[in-house]
Amino acid sequence: MAQIEAVSGADLVFANTVSAIEDAVTENNLVRDSWLASQEAAGRLVLYMEDNGHPLVFSGGWTPADARTTLVALAREQAVSAGLNPDRLHRQKVNFSLNGAQLSGSYTCTAMLLPSEQMSSAVLLYIIRDMGPLHDRLWAMVWQYTALWAAGALILAFLSHWMVDRALRPTAQAMQKQREFVAAAGHELRSPLTVLKASLQAAQAPETAHLAPQFLSHAASEVDRLSRLTEDLLILAGGDAGVLRTSLAKISTDTFLVELYERFVPVARDHGHSLTLHLPDNPLPALHADAQRLEQLFAVLLNNAFEYSPAGTPVEILAELPPSGGLHIAVVDHGPGVPDAEKHRIFDRFARGDRSRTDKTHFGLGLAVASQIASLHGAILRVRDTPGGGATFVVEWRNNHVLDRSSFS
Hints:
The protein has 409 residues and is an alpha+beta fold. Helices cover 50% and strands 17% of the residues. The strands form 3 sheets. The chain has a 5-stranded antiparallel beta sheet with strand order 2-1-5-4-3. Strands 7-9-10-12-11 form a 5-stranded mixed beta sheet, with helices on one face. 25% of the residues are buried.
């Protein structure tokens, strides 16, 4: 479209120039060389005129790529072939392309015979047009639009690749996590199943029949481990699929924490720890939560604190009301703490840096389950260092997940 407009515009300018020269020749007896030179230079033209067979002496307004004499000779010769008859004294006009093996450029020609009013004489006018500038302009447009198209195609390809990659990245990450989860779960299931099989086979073997009660006890322990692992896997899978059921209800936070404390005081004593509950002076806001799931969450945090803190160190349950609103409930221990390098992945499933994977009692799923339960309650589970050493796990609720303090007044 742009090339057609460029050609049409150039043709219109040329037609106007031809008309101006024609009018100047027919209406004026005298045409100045300077005016002809300006018309030539402006339109990249070569003008040649004969008045009653006498050529006009005119040096031209510019120097074309091919000699003027060559262009004029070809124009006079080919004008006749195009239909111009100099012997007939009536107005004639022909347009044609100038052809010649000796030409280095591209030209067109408009030849006219312009008789006088008395039809006693005539002027032969040849207007030779250099097509080089138009061709150069068209080629420049071709390259320009080709470059723009190529740039646009590259940008579009880049944006498409970026958008597709961005759209598929979560899916790819989810699939990768799923593959890792399945592989890790299979690894964890293999160990208790192997022990279970070996224990049952040993209990049935005649040579070890007298040890059957011991082997059956081992098998029962592995069944318990499998039961806990299955429960954890079901919680995580249900949370991922959005089908984990919770029985949400208004619960008194103060009552819940007091009951949680009383239930775990004996467990703490068995592990050689003291357990302390710290509540603020004012009543805590009520929670919209599943009390059973919430107890499961804090059971994970408390059991970790008991098992991985040195005997004799205190463990604390701390409830806080931050100035910005909401509710924070923390489990504070004074054990070895969590290295900074592992804080960002300690809640991952089967995380290699998880200390619970160093023994056979745990599977490295406890904190992942706790984080999942916290998320189901609109809370966030975080870990920070305890002043003086240890780890503090904090469950943080924002205002929109905490009920009004007057709920149980």
